[in-house]
Each structure stands twice: as structure tokens, then as C-alpha cells.
Amino acid sequence: MFALNFNNTAMHIFYGKVALIAYLKTIKTTNSTIGFVPTMGALHQGHLALMQRSLKENDDTVVSIFVNPTQFNNPEDLAKYPRTLEEDVKKMRGLSDKMILYAPSVEDIYEGKTISQDFDFDGLENQMEGKFRPGHFNGVGTIVKRLFEIVTPTNAYFGEKDFQQLQIVKKMVEKNHMPVNVVGCPIFREDNQLAMSSRNERLTAEERKEAAIIYQTLTEAKEIFKTKSPEETLEFVENSFKDNPRFELEYFVIADESTLLPIENKINDKKYRAFIAVFVNSIRLIDTISLN
Ligand code: AMP
Fold first, then answer.
1. Where are the domains of the chain?
2. Entry pTM
3. 64-93 burial string, b = 16+ CB within 10 Å, else e?
4. Residue 264: what pLDDT?
5. How far from 283 is each of 175, 204, 215, 217, 279, CA to CA, in Å?
6. Residue 269 — pLDDT band, cuts 50, 70, 90?
7. Which residues bind (R)-pantoate (predicted)?
8. Helix ranges restricted to H, 2-100
9. Residue 19 burial (CB count, 10 A)
10. Which residues is 254 bridged to in the sheet?
11. Strand 155-159, strand 181-185: pairing
12. Cα–Cα distance, 185 to 191 (Å, whole number)
């Protein structure tokens, strides 16, 4: 265990699971709760909001920072993923020095076998991110299950920005009978409404400004969907991106919020959500919006 000291405050930082598990044993009591916020670092306000919620709702909060190799299908994306541990620690400290940080190595998690387990998420894994990033959700399932086993959280906090991931984690917990309450949290956005993401760091100032088109298109699509069909809404979105060649639309899908299956027709009383993935100069950004 390492306690980093800044201005007389200390935050517990663990790089290995054995020491973390031993420490958690010392602080756990019969009725105490552990909140957990798994992240890949390069922390922004969206991550900090999850931590704030966990701090409010639990006796102790564990945050993990781990760029999980098995969930990356694109080696360039993995290599270029921002790694800013020192900055991240400062941001966490700015929020509270009471959090426990677990920042493991690949070896500490995978013990020499950096491969994913195969999961069946009842089809949730076959749409959108699963379709365009083969193996991604097996990687997500593998790391989240491993982290839940190590941290044994009472409550685990995930952002709705990765809505499909949130549904998949809920499914994994249910299927594996894990005693964890999975909590979905709202999307944090930049001033121009671009969803906050660690990948935004890789955009130029101009790209970042213009990336406002993603959420703007989603909100316009939401309006159109009120009176038009899913197909006509998709047409509108495709045309918006054709007019902006800097942005390459990978997918726009309107899906049933619970099954994540794309819809052809609207049925009253079903909850729908639009999902989008866009490339900007080979940087991949995703966003989502509830449609009703
Ligand atoms: P990541 O570090 O990108 O793996 O994200 C870690 C957690 O933070 C995941 O549960 C994400 O859904 C969540 N998250 C990422 N960006 C945002 C955002 N803009 N607003 C809310 N939650 C977010």
C-alpha cells in the first residue's frame, strides 16, 4: 500500500489486489457499505460525478483506474488511450481524500493470461458496440467481474454514456448472482453538450468544438422521431453527417431500451433510446439519448 501525501492529506493507493483486499478487510464492518467506481482513468467531470455519488451513498469508496487491454479491439486505440495517473490522483484528491484508489498492472489483473472469458448476455452484446467492436463486451464482462470479486462492492456506479455497457453489467450481475447493486448515472457534458470522454483529450480544439454536432443531431433526431418513423429519423441523421465530412457516422440506432434491439416500428408504452458512434479523425466518440 502507498499513501500519497499532498498538503497533509493522504489517499490510499494500491497497485496490487492482495494488499487492497487485506486493507478492505480491515475497514469493513457488518453493515458498512463499499461504493465502487471502475474507470480507465484520464478522469473528467463525468467520472468525478460518479465518485461524488458513491461518496454520498456509501461508507467507503473504491475507484479503479485500469486501461483494460481485453476490451480494445483496435490496438491503436489501446496504445493511444490517455494514461495520466498523477493528474488523476490530483483530481480525486480535489474531490475527497477519503477515496481508495486501485491502479493495478495488467499482470495483477490477468496473472499472465491476458484473455477474455466468453459471456452470454442474452443478446445485449450483439448490437451496436458489440457489433462494431468484436470481443469488446467479453473484455468488459471479464474485467468488471474480476474487479467486483476483488473489491466486493455494495454499490457500483456506471455512466449512462455507455448505456449498453450499463445494461450488460446489470445482466452479468444477475446471471452470476453477484451481490452488487449496479447504479446508472446521468451523462456529463461539456459546455457545447459534447459528452465528456477521456478520448475528447485527443481532439484538436476545433474538432472538440465542432463535435457539438453529435449531441445536436441526437436532440434533433429526438424531435423528428416524435412524428416520423425510425427509418426517416435515420435518414435525417445520415444526411446531417454527409453535410459534415469531418465526421464519419459509424452507426445510428434506435433501440428498445431494455432489449437493445433496433426497432422498425414504434409501439406505445415502450421506452426507446437512440445510440450513435462517430469517428472524428480516427477518434471514436459515442453518445446516447432517451427518446421518450
Ligand atoms: P471509462 O473511464 O471511459 O471506462 O468510464 C468509466 C465510467 O465512467 C463508466 O461507467 C462510464 O460510463 C462513465 N462515464 C464516462 N464518461 C461519462 C460521462 N460523460 N458522464 C457520465 N459518466 C461517464
1. 2-185, 198-290
2. 0.95
3. bbbbbbbbbeeeeeeeebbeeeeebbebbb
4. 87
5. 34, 11, 16, 18, 5
6. confident
7. 71, 165
8. 17-27, 45-57, 75-80, 85-95
9. 14
10. 274
11. parallel
12. 19
Residue 177 designated active-site: no
Q: Which residue in 18, 12, 25, 1 sits closest to 111, CA to CA?
A: 18
- Residue 40 beta carbon below 6 angstroms from any ligand 1 atom: yes
The pLDDT tens digits of the residues spanning 81-128 come to: 999 999 999 999 999 999 999 999 999 999 999 999 999 999 999 999
Which CATH superfamily includes the segment(s) 2-185?
HUPs (3.40.50.620)
Q: Which residue has the cell 449512462?
A: 160
Measured in Å, residue 11 CA sits from the centre of ligand 1 at 22
CA of 196 to the centre of ligand 1 (A): 8
**Beta-carbon neighbour count of residue 253 at 10 Å?**
21
Is residue 163 within 8 Å of residue 258, measured between CB atoms? no
CA atoms within 13 Å, Cβ hemisphere of 8: 0
What dotted CATH number matches 198-290? Answer: 3.30.1300.10
